[in-house]
Design a protein that fits this description.
Layout: H1 4-56, H2 63-76, H3 79-92, H4 102-121, H5 128-134
Helix pairs in contact: 1-2, 3-4
């Protein structure tokens, strides 16, 4: 009976070592995905606003950067963010927006920001009202 104790102890230790390794790898993958999402979201908005500024000033706006970062967002974002961003893009590309519909852009933008924040931060107490207070579209 005592000859099984070292074997059993080695098996239990090996099981815990493998489990620890798998948990560590999963956490590393989740952190890498979070970092990629953060970069994609930041650069997407940067290129989007630069494009808007260029078009407002009457200049040509290179679309390649916007398309690149939009694609990265699509690849790394959750379905919720992709859906909300699709609604925002649909509003931004319309040419026939009435005055009341421009508020829809601000609301859609804030909804996208909150969805992205929830995805990156995880458990957040921020609400849509909080986002409205800090929205960059207020200016």
């Amino acid at each position: 009976m005592t000859s099984w104790i070292p074997i059993l102890a080695a098996a239990v230790a090996g099981t815990f070592a493998v489990a620890g390794y798998l948990v560590q790898k999963r956490l590393q993958r989740m952190q890498a995905l979070s970092d990629q999402r953060r970069e994609a979201y930041t650069m997407y908005f940067k290129t989007m606003f630069e494009g808007i500024d260029n078009r407002r000033q009457g200049g040509a706006s290179p679309v390649a950067d916007e398309v690149y970062w939009r694609t990265r967002v699509f690849l790394f974002a959750s379905d919720d963010v992709v859906e909300k961003l699709g609604l925002l893009q649909g509003l931004l590309t319309r040419r026939d927006l009435a005055e009341g519909q421009k508020d829809q852009i601000s609301d859609a933008f804030d909804t996208v920001l909150l969805a992205m924040r929830r995805e990156i931060v995880g458990n957040t107490k921020a609400t849509l009202a909080d986002v409205h207070k800090l929205s960059p579209l207020l200016e």
